[in-house]
Design a protein that fits this description.
61% helix
Length: 64
């Protein structure tokens, strides 16, 4: 489980552009609402264009 300190640090680092990508695990379907809420929070912090970059564009660069 995420601790408040880790969440606070991530929320501080996201707008600073310190992440190459973000993602979630899909191993526990019961946790899907929390994972979607987390992605929504990322979007609030950095906007939809950067969310796309962090979740689709940059991860895709790992395969090319």
């Amino acid at each position: 489980a995420d601790t408040p300190d880790i969440v606070a640090l991530a929320q501080r680092y996201l707008p600073d552009g310190r992440y190459f990508m973000v993602g979630t695990d899909g191993h526990r379907p019961a946790q899907l609402p929390a994972r979607l809420a987390g992605l929504a929070r990322v979007e609030e912090l950095v906007g939809s264009a950067m969310l796309h970059t962090l979740t689709e564009k940059n991860p895709g660069r790992l395969w090319t």
